[in-house]
Each structure stands twice: as structure tokens, then as C-alpha cells.
């Protein structure tokens, strides 16, 4: 899947701004970004549900949106709302989706039974979807999305309404699909989910601000992240947050996680140590490995600051 210069405008609002993407087969590719960052709009354009204002899209060898109708039988799409028929049973939901997706009638009973076993609904196949838990509905929605063995699966914030254990089980299913040959594009605003992806794009205000593996993106911040242990973390945070060398400060328990603008040696960190000494002489600052949350803060704030300077 490739997109070049992908743009979507709604009147004066630029929801997606000249995004370039390339997703390899058998890959779990993540879209990370806050609500309103353009993730859902991008997905809808990629699967042919929304016509871009500018740009070119090629999905599974098909030009989109011109060939969107031919694409639909080859992709699956799952949203965060779990689009199930709550007054139908598990088996009836699967049978209905098989009919919608054009699964041959001779193949449907075996395929439905296969998914009921694979997604652990053996004792619930007659249960109404509306009476199931959030995690169970999520698994059923995923089973419905793959009833026709799609080559490419789009998942738009699919785990936002379920508990951590259900989310973990759900991701195991996603990797099973990838191992079986399916390519997956997953949008999320959750850092722990983003870290699971093979590759990751970070969107902010419709702009692609980072693209790479989670390890690559975090590695680019080497030398820029620190933890401060202080007896008075709130006061320490107040003196650090306004320093020009500091890009972000977040309290984590009794400590502070500090992100600086550039990689600094000990001498360059003297302003931070000096500021800390005024409020807590016993405070200790040490370097720590960057994580994906640091990456997100860095790329979104640096982009915003550059836009503000340009304005």
C-alpha cells in the first residue's frame, strides 16, 4: 500500500496534509496520534470510503478511489464501535457478514465454524451479541471483519472500549493474522499498543511527523531523556518546565521524566542542575533510555514550535 501527497480538506480545514505512506505486506503498521489528528480520515481514504482532495493512493495494486469497488472484496474494516447486530447470535452475525462479503454459500458453514473455534466462541455461538462483554464483542467484530479472508485489514481505534487483558488477547489475534499473510493497518492513541507495531506513523494535526519502527524512533532521542528523583517533584517540575533547554516534563510517581531539546553532555545540563539545586539540593538527575511517549512529545511539540516560528 502506498500513498503520495495524501490530502483531505473540509472547507478551510485541512484534516490530512500531504501525507506519504508505504506499508509492506504481512506488516502490522500503526497510526499513532491524538483524537482529531487525521487517523480515521486517512484510513477512510486508503480504503476508498472517502475521496482525497489531493494525492495518489495505490492499494493492493489498485488505484484508489477509482478502483474502490474492486478493492472492497479484498479488505476488511473494523471500527471502535464494534458494528454488530446485537439481536443476532454469534453464529448469525458471522453468517450475515459472510453473505454481505460474498463468501460462497457452500463455504459459509465451514468458515463460520472455523472462526467460532479460532476465536473461542464454542460455548457461546448461540448467545446474542448484545449480551456479551466488551472484549467478547471485540473478538466477534474481528472475526466478522476477516470472514472473507481479506488480504488487508484496517482497524480504526479497535481497542478503545475494552479492558487491558482483552486488548492483550486481541493483539495476539492480530499477530496471528499477520503471520498468516494479512497486512494490518491499526490506528491508536495508546502508547503501549503503538509499541507492538512492526512500523509506526505518528500523525499530528493532519501531518505525518514521524515514521519508522518503534526502536528506530526511540533511538533517535538517545541522550535527550532523563529522570529526576526529588523530594519535592512538584516544585522541581515548576522550575524545569520553563527552561529553554527543556521540551517536556512529566511526573511519574515520585520522579520526573524530562525531555530536552537536544542531546546534551553533562556540561550542557548545568542549567537544569542549577535550577534543581535551588528547590531541592538533594535532587538527582540521570539519563534513561527514551520511550515512545518521549518520541510522541518530541515530534509533536517540535513541529508545533517550528510552525509557530514560521508564522
From TrEMBL:
<dbReference type="GO" id="GO:0005524">
    <property type="term" value="F:ATP binding"/>
</dbReference>
<dbReference type="InterPro" id="IPR003593">
    <property type="entry name" value="AAA+_ATPase"/>
</dbReference>
<dbReference type="InterPro" id="IPR003439">
    <property type="entry name" value="ABC_transporter-like_ATP-bd"/>
</dbReference>
<dbReference type="InterPro" id="IPR017871">
    <property type="entry name" value="ABC_transporter-like_CS"/>
</dbReference>
<keyword id="KW-0547">Nucleotide-binding</keyword>
<protein>
    <submittedName>
        <fullName>ABC transporter ATP-binding protein</fullName>
    </submittedName>
</protein>
<feature type="domain" description="ABC transporter">
    <location>
        <begin position="1"/>
        <end position="230"/>
    </location>
</feature>
<dbReference type="Pfam" id="PF00005">
    <property type="entry name" value="ABC_tran"/>
</dbReference>
<dbReference type="InterPro" id="IPR027417">
    <property type="entry name" value="P-loop_NTPase"/>
</dbReference>
<keyword id="KW-0067">ATP-binding</keyword>
